[in-house]
Amino acid sequence: MILSLATASLKNRRGSVLLTVFSIVISVSLLLSVEYIRGQVKESFTRTVSGVDLIVGGRTGQLNLLLYSVFRIGNPTTGIAWQSVEHLQNNPSVAWMIPIALGDAHKGFRVVGTDNRYFDHFKYGSKQSLTFAHGGAFSHDKSAVIGADVARELGYSIGDDIVVAHGLGDVSFKKHDSHPFTISGILAATGTPVDQAVYVTLQGLESVHEESGQQALRKPISRKHSIQHDSDHAEHDDHHTDTDTHTLSDVPPDKISAVMLGLNNRVAALQLQHQVNQYKQEPLMAILPGVALAQLWELMGNVEKLLLGISALILLSSLVGLTTMLLASMRERRQEIAVLRAIGAGPGTVLWLIQAEALLISSAGCVIAFIAVSATLYLSADWLSSTYGLFVSGTLFTPATAIVVVSVILATWLVSFIPALAAYRRALHSGLQHP
């Protein structure tokens, strides 16, 4: 009975009620979005690198090693000798490895020296592999692969030549003009730091740093020369030429910045980490990416709390608006309360009627907000993953969002006591003779 009376009363005041519902929809949508995306961002952040069991670098801080190897922020304090890398590769626990060399840049984007194992084994998100939007992996020592952001901002395409330089900012101090790289592939967007880097071969990067007097790697032959060479090779199948650059050399560099390891059994990660940290040939450090990412996320906890605080304040303002609307309607409802008292409704019934109206408004706002946010997240899932690296998975209905909705309903019930008590006191003295 109370619910039917509350519904009928709300219909008679549909204008102000709809505005109040709208304000609650906005505030609850913000609160649900922030709470849900907060969890998804944390999960996506901790999956910036996926499937890598250990990252090994020179002795430094755990976060510094994570930042320069995964996020391309900062610089390594020291390198790793290639002999140490081979020692790690020969460990029976290691299934694969990805070498990484840092130190150069191209027009503000970091240059990463690596090999084709990077494109084979590096994963992000829910163990998603890297894919090429155009072209493919390294085909020769002067090949380069660029991330999606690099291609978009600089307007590069397959076959363009690029020059790397010393310096990590937009201003470079020394350009290696005599050693250009040719773009062989453009990676598909991942929404991670992978999109903001230029990848070159370790051998090619080593060649641009060779001092004068050392033999540098040959430049890639032009397409015209390549056609002529193919023609000559077709005529002289038995003739060997040393001008063919369409192969990758296997000459290792002297040092690299870090190495990512994938293990045959993840249980061995802690044991191998201990072995690396105790390595006597040179000071090395191994970190577990998941642990380091969790530690880094803790440093960003204040931003997370700030977003939740802003959303909570917006919700509070909506509840204040709801209370104000119900209080303002009390003067208009004196006749209604008097009629209810005349037909036998007690003051308690009037109190519960006002609270039922508030709960109906709040519940309707929560339902609409839940549907709106769910639809928005579903429709924008692909865009969020490719643009921001936010991988929306599962449904909006989680324990965290359920707590949000229950909290909103409970807060509505509490604030509705203010107009409900005012109606209760009025009901005690109302009658038909006092409209």
UniProtKB/TrEMBL annotation:
Phylogenetic lineage: Bacteria, Pseudomonadati, Pseudomonadota, Gammaproteobacteria, Alteromonadales
Domain ABC3 transporter permease C-terminal residues, every copy: 310-425
Coiled-coil region list: none
Bias kind Basic and acidic residues: ranges: 227-247
Bilayer-crossing regions: 17-37, 306-329, 350-380, 400-424
Protein name (Swiss-Prot/TrEMBL): Peptide ABC transporter permease
Keywords: Cell membrane, Membrane, Transmembrane, Transmembrane helix
One Pfam match: FtsX
Source organism of the structure: Alteromonas halophila
Region (Disordered): 211-251
Domain MacB-like periplasmic core: 18-208
Localization of this protein: Cell membrane
Family annotation (InterPro entries): ABC-4/HrtB_transporter (IPR051125), ABC3_permease_C (IPR003838), MacB_PCD (IPR025857)
Keyword hit for Glycoprotein: no
One GO cellular component term: plasma membrane
Membrane topology of the entry: Multi-pass membrane protein
